[in-house]
TrEMBL record:
Its EC number(s): 2.7.13.3
Role description: Member of the two-component regulatory system BvgS/BvgA. Phosphorylates BvgA via a four-step phosphorelay in response to environmental signals.
A Pfam family recorded for this sequence: PAS_8
Positions of post-translational 4-aspartylphosphate modification: 1012
The keyword Kinase appears for this protein: yes
CDD domains referenced in this protein's UniProt entry, alphabetically: HATPase_EvgS-ArcB-TorS-like, HisKA, PAS, REC_hyHK_CKI1_RcsC-like
Catalytic reaction annotation: ATP + protein L-histidine = ADP + protein N-phospho-L-histidine
Positions of transmembrane segments: 25-45, 52-69, 75-97, 109-138, 158-181
Histidine kinase domain sequence ranges: 706-934
Keywords, in A-Z order: Kinase, Membrane, Phosphoprotein, Signal, Transferase, Transmembrane, Transmembrane helix, Two-component regulatory system, Virulence
One GO MF term attached to the UniProt entry: phosphorelay sensor kinase activity
GO BP: regulation of DNA-templated transcription
UniProt-recorded name of the protein: Virulence sensor protein BvgS
Amino acid sequence: MADTPEAPPAAQAPEAEAVGLMSRVFLAVSGVACLVGTGLVYLLLSGHAQAHYAALAFGALAVVALFSTRLRGTALRVAVTLVFSSLVLLIGVNSVVQGWGLRTPSMPLLGLLVCMLCVTAGWRAGLMLCGLALAMVLAVALNVPTVPASPGLPGVPMLLGVCLLALGTGMACGVLASQALQRLSAQARDREDRFRRLLSLAADAYWETDERYRVITAAIGREAPRALAPEEGGGRIPWELPQFRCEDDVLDALQADMDARLPFRDVPVFWTDEHRREHALLISGEPRFGSSGVFTGYWGVVRNVTAVHAAHHALEATETRYQELFSRIPTPLVLHRNGRVLDANPAAVSLFGHADLAGMLGTDLLERYQDGDSRARATERMQTLQRQAPGNALPVANFTLDVEGRQIFVRGTSVRVDTEGGPALLAIFIDDTERIATEEAVRRSEALLSHLVATSPDLITLTDLATGRYAMVNRSFEQHIGWSAAEAVGRTSLELGVWAGEADRQRFVQALQQDGQVVDAPVVFRTRAGRTMPMIVSAARFTIERREYIVINARDVSERERQRLEREAILTNASIGIAVTRNRVFTLTNRHFEQLYGWEPGEMIGRSGAEVWPGHEAYEQLGREIGPALARGEAVQLQCAARRKDNSTFLAFVRGRAIDPQNPADGGTVWIIEDVTAREEAQSALARARDEAEAASRAKSAFLANTSHELRTPLNGMIGLARLARDERSDSARREQYLEQIVESAQSLAGIISDILDLSKIEAGKLHIEAGSFDLDGQLHTLQRTYATLADARGLALRLQLPPALPGAPLGRVTGDALRLRQVLSNFLGNALKFTASGQVVMRARRLAADDDGGVGMVRFEVEDTGPGIAPELQARLFEPFTQADQSITRRFGGTGLGLSICRELATLMGGRVGVHSLPGSGSTFWAELPLPVAAAAEMAAPNAEEPELAASLEGRRVLMVEDNAVNMMIAVALLEAWGAEVAQAGDGHEALAAVQQAQAAGRGFDAVLMDVQMPRMSGYEATRRLRDAGLAVPVIALTAAALVTERDEALAAGMSDFLTKPIDAERLRATLARWCGQRATAPAAPD
């Protein structure tokens, strides 16, 4: 858009616009006709000499006509008149040139030209053209010879008449058409005037724009529309004017509507007048389209709503002020109709116990009044006020509200108001709950103060300063001084003789006169009986109702001295350290505190607290950690290292607290110190023991789960193999194989049970180590032969390495427990063969030198394998009960984890020790060092004490087998009869007792009794006790499946001779029977 906009065309009247349009159309048609005429002249009359003049004339006229279409107003009318006049002249010239005269074909067009000019340029211009045309017609008729008429054609008079008639008709028609157009224009002007008057009534201004939205016409109020000058905004787009202001979103919407050629209504804008006053306007507009449908601009109206806008803003401000006042006023306000809450301010929402306004709206206000008088009065007042006119109010009244179980005392009134929904009441409340509570508290405080004064242990007196006479004395004064209140009031202290010394009284009076108060002054009072009392006195002056008084508070401190002595005794005899610090310096320490830190009495007073901490940094860190808590008056406690005077340290439990929690910074801190070194060591030891016990418990739990598996595995095999052996389809060879496997499973099961029993005996301290002579060399070779088959089955080499002779003695007999030695070495060999996948296992034995074994004949045994080895961190756990080096070993190889533990305990019982040397991937060497001294010469020739005593034969021996289980009975009888014994049977203790007594009576007593322990009717224990009570000394050998230490002790206590565990080892049973049958003891013998 150019900086200087193009001036818009002036506004035209409707008839002028219509005439101008017709004029331009006529001019355009005339111009085109002239151009066509120019061409026809050149084509048809090219032979005539004057043809080119005619062509030039037509061309010039065409140019003038076409150019004149751009003219407007008077210029356009003049141009139309000239063109039409030129056409008349050209018609006349053409008739003369052609020699046609009045017979020229264009002569009748003269009337049409006159009519058109009358319409476009007015009747005067038409009359002028009509005269010109008439003159031209007469001139042609008089001066141009007329071509002779052909027969049947009209003559000149008739042609002249026709031309005159055409001119007259054209003039008449033009005048009539011009008058009709003027009447239509007048009517249009009238309509437009009425429209503008209506606009002036409905709107404050009228405006028009062109197609580029530039203002071209405006009318303010009832003035006529006029074109605006550029300085008034004419020719410019409104929103580009500095006087115009509009919100951005509103302007965007307005421009979008105008670009879419849509009408718009009441668009809010602002206009600043020449006085710099801003007016609020609402503009409306509709698009205008020309007769051909072309958009020509917008027109519309403006309404000045400044006053409405100001009133609206004033109303909004008033509403805002009301809402702010309503919401912010601390007085509870509730708007309600018939008790139903319509609105409430926050103070009322809070008063009635609601979380927000939404929870209160719609509730019944009357339900909040306490049932009874308050609710009844509130209901009556509400009904009364509803019948009154708006603005009336009720007097203030007191009510009690019930809010969530709490009583709230309020003063309330109501005002009758009108709302959009109808009449309502505005209730105004003043919460007096706090005021009433305060007044009640004041009354209670006064009563309490009076009570405190009356019951205070201190002496309290009130003295009139002007007269020096007592106005009030409390009960403590009466009790201590001896004067009653009736006797003291109205008299002076001098009259009563209260002061024991005049000097005290003078100092008291002087301090009171100078400072207006006395604080903790030591004085001596005298009682009515003459006894003196040390007191601490405080006093102050004050004024009540323009009269000065002195209040004196005196405390008897004779008790304080006694308390001081008690406190010193407590500090001196306390078994804990007690100290007081102020500003980090010791101000008091008791003797125990000084002894804890190694200081002499009184030596720590004045020293810094850093003296008792290991270092300055530790002391500062302590201050940072506990200082804030102490400053808040909180108690602190901590356990830390403390430093003595000699720089040694001990573990101290420290507790501290501010002496005055209200003034912790200045009041000092009291400290209590305990030496907890011994207690912490004991707790640490207890914690370690607890952890070890918990670890042992967990290990035992794992052991029990694993042992259950280990027991069930061979037992399951035994049951399955026994069922297979019973199958009739099995041949004898397969049954033999089944029976051998059953025996192996049973032996495995017996081995597990033996380990458990041995551990039980060891833990109970009931395992006994035998001391007999045996052939060590033979025992080692027997072990090699025993495990050679297992080694071959696993593809391993088992070798025994012995020196030519043990140092100090030949390979021969030694003294010790061969059974337990065999148990230790068997465990070493069994583990080595179990965990070694390839390679070899080597067993060695050598006697240690005398310097190494302490003179007890120690022999070192080693079992070395080429297995996977054991990590160092796991070796320490190997010899613990229920433990294996890796839990995966249990899953891969089985076992209970008791073997090595039993080996360690057996070695300890024998006076030796066990151990292991191993590295992962390099195999392991388990060793045992056991005291096995060389046997004496007499023992060299004696038979092996451990070998079964088979010399004594069981042939012909009478044995009573007592067993309630038929299978066990069958096995035992078969074994005994195979050994040549004569066997009798009994199913329980009763039968056994009867059988022994019957055999004894018949003179064929039994050589031995094999007695089951647990049996129905009568147990083996009870049967044995009755045999012993009867004086029968037959050997009784207990058979039990439990075999715990307690079982053995109970069997021996019952009088049994020996003790064997199930499952029965046949060779051990045979040896035990042979031994007891050979002895034939008459009383129970001790077991081996």
